[in-house]
Design a protein that fits this description.
about 350 residues; alpha/beta; Rossmann fold; 2 domains; 7-stranded mixed beta sheet; 4-stranded parallel beta sheet; 13 strands; about 20% strand; binds 6-O-phosphono-beta-D-fructofuranose
């Protein structure tokens, strides 16, 4: 009988409980035991490690749809990769994690995380030498290379859609525009997908140069005097500082366009998990358990079309753009962005959405 661990790391998103629930169901069905590591690496740093044995009743199926992580994602005040790197205690930290995993005698660990956690796992793989490490990609930013979807992205797009659907009604009443700032860090995929979904009139993302005068012209040429301008949080405007939606809003006001900035903030990471994300959770959980059965290690699950496959973490790391982590000087994170040939860019142009200088 195998003993496997599961932990959630990095920023939360909706879908984490669905993944945990599906991993527990699938593992129990194989006759395995599952241990939930509480608070990610924080739980592994505690003595004894903060771990609970999980059964299908631990997260009942009717609660698997809710956002957040039943296992928590870590406490910023604890020692973690970031604080360990800053205080020169990386070796000690890695040893603490390795010792904990050895004490727990786990055969495998399912790490549900984002590109930061995966990059760290790849770069510090000695921690997981004695077990099978299988990563499941989750993030509302969808900035992980080599997978067609990440857990939590679809729910975030849906939450933004719901939010903007309501904003449009008040926008119409007041003949005004809303500049909606989405999350996503320096990846514009969340803004692009949600912008198309809600019928935004402009979508501004970090990957594509834009011009405020062109944006103003575009808005002035619209038949409507209300609507949504989607702005990804990673954009910059030369000579300006502050929140991106505020910067754009001020420019529009200066051009005589009635508008308000709006910030959906953390609701993008909340909301009941959509059916699409739940199905993805079930697919990725099954793929992860198969990988453990086949003794694969240092891999990540990835959606390719309709199929879920495993990809070595080395390929994940090589495929992305390597960006230095501002908080962990030794680390470069592997990032994915909107590709110049993303078909949604053509769709946006065909829908007369201002998207910047794409060609
Ligand atoms: O990576 C997920 C994300 O929600 C980003 O979109 C956002 O920039 C960031 O996390 C916010 O992080 P924090 O929870 O530290 O405020």
């Amino acid at each position: 009988m195998k003993k496997i661990g599961i932990m959630t790391t990095g920023g939360d998103c909706s879908g984490l409980n669905s993944v945990i629930n599906r991993v527990v169901l699938g593992a129990t069905n194989r006759g395995w035991r599952v241990y939930g590591i509480v608070d990610g690496t924080d739980g592994l740093c505690m003595r004894p490690a903060n771990v609970i044995e999980m059964t299908p009743q631990t997260i009942p199926v009717e609660l698997a749809r809710i956002a957040g992580s039943f296992l928590h994602n870590g406490n910023a005040c604890m020692m973690n990769f970031e604080t360990a790197a800053k205080t020169g205690r990386m070796l000690k930290f890695n040893k603490m994690l390795k010792d904990s995993l050895a004490t727990l005698k786990l055969d495998a660990l399912v790490l549900v995380g984002g590109n930061g956690s995966f990059s760290l796992s790849y770069k510090n793989s000695e921690i997981y030498n004695d077990l099978s490490l299988v990563c499941i990609p989750k993030t509302i930013d969808f900035d992980i290379p080599l997978t067609d979807k990440t857990i939590g992205f679809d729910t975030a797009v849906n939450e933004l859609t719901r939010y903007c659907d309501q904003l449009l009604l008040t926008a119409r009443s007041h003949h005004r525009w809303f500049v909606v700032q989405t999350m996503g860090r320096d990846c514009g995929r969340l803004a692009l997908h949600a912008g198309i979904a809600i019928g935004a009139d402009a979508i501004i993302v970090p990957e594509i140069k834009f011009d405020v005068d062109d944006l103003v012209k575009h808005i002035n040429a619209c038949e409507r005097d209300y609507g949504i301008i989607m702005v990804s949080e990673g954009i910059t405007l030369r000579g300006h500082s502050g929140r991106p939606a505020d910067m754009i809003s001020r420019k529009l006001t200066a051009a005589g366009i009635q508008n308000r900035a709006a910030f959906p903030d953390y609701i993008q990471r909340a909301g009941d998990t959509t059916a699409t994300d739940r199905i993805l959770a079930a697919k990725m959980a099954t793929c992860a358990l198969d990988a453990i059965e086949n003794r694969e290690t240092n891999v990540m699950t990835a959606l390719r079309g309709n199929e879920c496959v495993t990809v070595p973490l080395s390929e994940f790391y090589a495929a992305g753009d390597l960006v230095r982590d501002p908080n962990i000087p030794e680390l470069c994170t592997s990032n994915a962005y909107i590709e110049p040939d993303d078909p949604l860019l053509d769709v946006a142009t065909a829908m007369n959405i201002y998207i910047g200088q794409t060609k």
